[in-house]
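Worked example 2:
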Amino acid sequence: MHIRRAVKTDARQLAQLRWEFRSVAHGTPNETEQAFVDRCAAWMDDRLSGSGTWMAWVAEQNSEIVGQIWVLFFEKVPNPTVELERHAYISNLYVKPSARGGVGTQLLERCLEWLADQSVHQIMLWPSTLSRSLYARHGFAITNDVLMRKG
């Protein structure tokens, strides 16, 4: 298994993995697979262009991408305290079922190692029920600090 940073040329494979991840486990799609993969690949291609807001890592096995993890950086309004103003949001950690058995852990650990050098105040995510134990093993905890409202 090889873990590396994602690049623009990975976008189509990553979009196909996103389709597999979200269309199977998270409800009935409201667009065709082809339409979604085209739209998502264009989005991913743009985000992997090096703007620095989004980052992604992939797991490769026999030259095939079998897993991915994404990170979004966002900032708070500047403040005069010691609290860092940069935050990170982890999203889309997914590994093909045929490649599971530690690959998700490897992706998460690579991402967290990189984030350790990025001066972020907090790292947040929205875990699935099945992924909660993975994140808990890596120091994530449920807090009541964030209020949410649907748009």
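The chain has a mean pLDDT of 92. The beta strands are 2-5, 54-61, 64-75, 86-95, 123-124.
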